[in-house]
């Protein structure tokens, strides 16, 4: 039963009618909206604060902003590990949310206090005369910037897993709600980003960063209070101890017994019982990675970590199966943050008039977010029911198929962006030609929305559903680690390409300088399109080789197969 290991807030077995379901998930969705109202404007506009107020150079400000986003993604693993190992997911949120709030309040205090700023100067006309933040001011800034990722990263991974726990995958009546939860989880991220980019960015530009940071702290606090109100309705997964320790034990035991012969009869292997307390589900032996099966063979060795259960071995196999999907997904996501940020720079050089109003370039971030929200609603309400009837898949398509659609969309978005940039550059070079309208960017924004709706949600569903019951939070954290790794690799890719093209172009790289018309952004887009296409085919190979779904995607009741394996069409 999927409800095995789940308890209410008092530690009693859950009542399926009273606990969980859409009612409980609404509290979690509200938290995600509030957290992203605070967080997304911070991610997208942090460079302005670091450069304009703290007087950092453009390069240092951009690097710090990229590291901030990467830290959020990687700190999600910390909260996931804690919640899977020692503390229930809900209580992990309550522990880490105040850390995020403290980070925002530190930044608000610093932004509000001129004595904690660098000396005043003219950053626009005489930037070389400006001294960047240093000493205690830099230390306070760094502390605030890293407290936020510790809290936000943990909140993200635990909220996704806690929401998934509210639905029973073995109950057809709840299965569709579980599938919709992750769609609406992504919708709430987009909704929070939309409100934040409209409201908090206006506050940053007109009322100051101090008030903006304080409002961000209030948003997270409000979301935490509301999610706390859902405590009586949640289904809580009991922690099962460190999954990393269990998996490490498998590799140690398998190495010690590498010379043993595997028994033909599975009954000769150590099968977990309820008394082991190391897992809330019991998995049967699968046929791949047979060298790990030796860890569950009892050879009479009484040393610590010498004997593992079959379930422990299967947990280790799950991780190994997912490694190629993880790596290929990192590569597939590398071009996305680059395309998003560079598209906004494109828009700043185009005709941004809409009737009698001019659209600020920073507001262009809102466009893909709006597309994402509309596409998510249409996909969940119309496309999934139709695909479910057509394919027989509970989610309309298999998780890895959905991710593949997203990566294919990213290839098309990059190709479209390259063509549009080529035309924009030609128009800019002609004195007689009027500047292109910013609405030429609509197709690539739309394809970016499709990519986010399909690949992000698909990866979240995949890693959550494939992870064992004792690793659900870590499964969700893996997705955010993918985004963080892709962001850092993207920054490195820009440096490598710029350095290589500068050597061949007489010292001027494709993306050198502030003048986009003198750069070769169109060629960089084509390079990213080729990179994305190669990554897409690599992903297809990895997805095709992933033949072992723990849950049959074609089964409408999503039950675990007897052998915990199914052949899945990718």
Molecular structure report:
This is Protein NRT1/ PTR FAMILY 4.3-like. Its main location: membrane. It comes from Panicum miliaceum (Proso millet). The chain has 570 residues and is mainly α. It has 3 domains: 1-122 and 132-240, MFS general substrate transporter like domains (Growth Hormone, Chain: A), CATH 1.20.1250.20; 243-312, no CATH class; 313-550, MFS general substrate transporter like domains (Growth Hormone, Chain: A, Up-down Bundle), CATH 1.20.1250.20. Helices cover 64% and strands 1% of the residues. The protein contains 15 helices and 4 strands. The chain has helices at 21-52, 58-85, 89-112, 135-164, 172-206, 209-229, 243-256, 290-293, 310-333, 335-348, 366-391, 399-429, 442-466, 472-504, 521-545; strands at residues 6-7, 236-237, 353-354, 357-358. The strands form 2 sheets. Strands 1-2 form a two-stranded antiparallel sheet. A two-stranded antiparallel ribbon has the order 3-4. Helix 1 runs antiparallel to helix 4 and helix 5 crosses helix 13 (442-466). It is globular and about 80 Å long. The two termini are 27 Å apart. The relative contact order is 0.12.
Strand segment count: 4
Spatial order of the strands forming the largest sheet = 1-2
How much of the sequence lies in strands comes to under 5%
Tally the structural domains. Answer: 3
Fold-level CATH name of the largest domain: Growth Hormone, Chain: A
CATH class of the largest domain: Mainly Alpha
Overall structural class, as computed from helix and strand content, comes to mainly alpha
Number of helices: 15
CATH homologous superfamily grouping of the largest domain: MFS general substrate transporter like domains
Rounded average pLDDT: 83
**Poorly predicted runs:** 273-277, 556-570
How much helical structure, as a percent, in the residues?
A: 55-70%
Under the CATH scheme, which architecture of the largest domain would be assigned? Up-down Bundle
Biggest sheet overview = 2 strands, antiparallel
- Quick one: overall form? globular
| Secondary-structure element string | EHHHHHHEHHHHEEHHHHH
N- and C-termini, Cα separation = 27 Å
Whole-angstrom Rg:
25 Å
Family: Belongs to the major facilitator superfamily. Proton-dependent oligopeptide transporter (POT/PTR) (TC 2.A.17) family.
Transmembrane segments: 27-52, 64-83, 89-109, 181-203, 209-234, 322-342, 362-379, 400-420, 440-464, 476-497, 523-546
Pfam family, one: PTR2
Protein name: Protein NRT1/ PTR FAMILY 4.3-like
């Amino acid at each position: 039963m999927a409800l095995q290991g789940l308890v209410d807030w008092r530690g009693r077995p859950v009542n399926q009618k009273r606990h969980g379901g859409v009612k409980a998930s609404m509290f979690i969705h509200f938290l995600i909206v509030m957290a992203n109202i605070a967080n997304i404007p911070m991610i997208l506009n942090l460079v302005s604060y670091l450069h304009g107020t703290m007087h950092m150079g453009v390069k240092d400000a951009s690097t710090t902003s990229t590291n901030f986003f990467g830290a959020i993604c990687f700190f999600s693993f910390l909260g996931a590990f804690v919640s899977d190992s020692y503390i229930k997911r809900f209580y992990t949120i309550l522990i880490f949310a105040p850390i995020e709030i403290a980070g925002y309040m530190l930044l608000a205090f610093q932004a509000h206090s001129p004595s904690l700023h660098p000396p005043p100067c003219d950053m626009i006309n005489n930037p070389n005369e400006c001294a960047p933040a240093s000493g205690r001011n830099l230390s306070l800034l760094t502390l605030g910037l890293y407290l936020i990722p510790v809290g936000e990263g943990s909140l993200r991974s635990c909220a996704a897993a806690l929401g998934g726990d509210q639905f029973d995958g073995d109950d057809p009546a709840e299965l569709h709600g579980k599938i919709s939860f992750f769609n609406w989880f992504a919708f709430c991220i987009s909704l929070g980003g939309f409100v934040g980019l409209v409201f908090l960015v206006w506050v940053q530009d007109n009322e100051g960063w101090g008030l903006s940071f304080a409002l961000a702290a209030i948003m997270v606090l409000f979301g935490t209070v509301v999610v706390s109100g859902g405590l009586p309705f949640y289904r809580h997964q009991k922690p099962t101890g460190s999954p990393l320790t269990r998996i490490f034990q498998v590799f140690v035991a398998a190495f010690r017994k590498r010379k043993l012969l595997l028994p033909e009869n599975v009954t000769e292997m150590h099968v977990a019982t309820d008394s082991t307390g190391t897992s809330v589900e019991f998995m049967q032996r699968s046929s791949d990675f047979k060298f790990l099966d030796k860890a569950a063979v009892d050879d009479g060795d009484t040393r610590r970590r010498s004997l593992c259960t079959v379930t422990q071995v299967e947990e280790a196999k799950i991780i190994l199966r997912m490694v190629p999907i993880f790596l290929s997904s990192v590569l597939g996501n590398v071009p996305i943050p680059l395309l998003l940020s560079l598209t906004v720079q494109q828009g700043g050089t185009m005709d941004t008039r809409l009737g009698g109003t001019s659209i600020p370039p920073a507001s262009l971030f809102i466009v893909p977010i709006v597309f994402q929200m509309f596409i998510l609603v249409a996909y969940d309400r119309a496309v999934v029911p139709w695909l479910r009837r057509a394919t027989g898949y509970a989610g309309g398509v298999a998780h890895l198929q959905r991710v593949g659609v997203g990566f294919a969309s990213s290839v098309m978005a990059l190709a479209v962006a390259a063509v549009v940039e080529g035309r924009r550059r030609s128009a800019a070079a002609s004195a007689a030609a009027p500047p292109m309208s910013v609405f030429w960017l609509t197709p690539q924004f739309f394809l970016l929305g499709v990519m986010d709706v399909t690949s992000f949600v698909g990866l979240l569903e995949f890693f959550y559903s494939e992870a064992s019951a004792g690793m659900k939070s870590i499964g969700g954290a893996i997705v955010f680690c993918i985004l963080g790794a892709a962001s850092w690799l993207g920054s490195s890719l820009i440096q490598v390409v710029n350095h290589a093209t500068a050597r061949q172009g007489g010292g001027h790289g494709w993306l050198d300088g502030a003048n986009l018309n003198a750069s070769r952004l169109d060629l960089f887009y084509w390079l990213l399109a080729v990179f994305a296409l190669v990554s897409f085919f690599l992903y297809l190979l990895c997805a095709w080789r992933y033949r072992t779904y723990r849950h049959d995607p074609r089964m409408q009741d999503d039950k675990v197969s007897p052998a915990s394996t199914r052949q899945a069409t990718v």
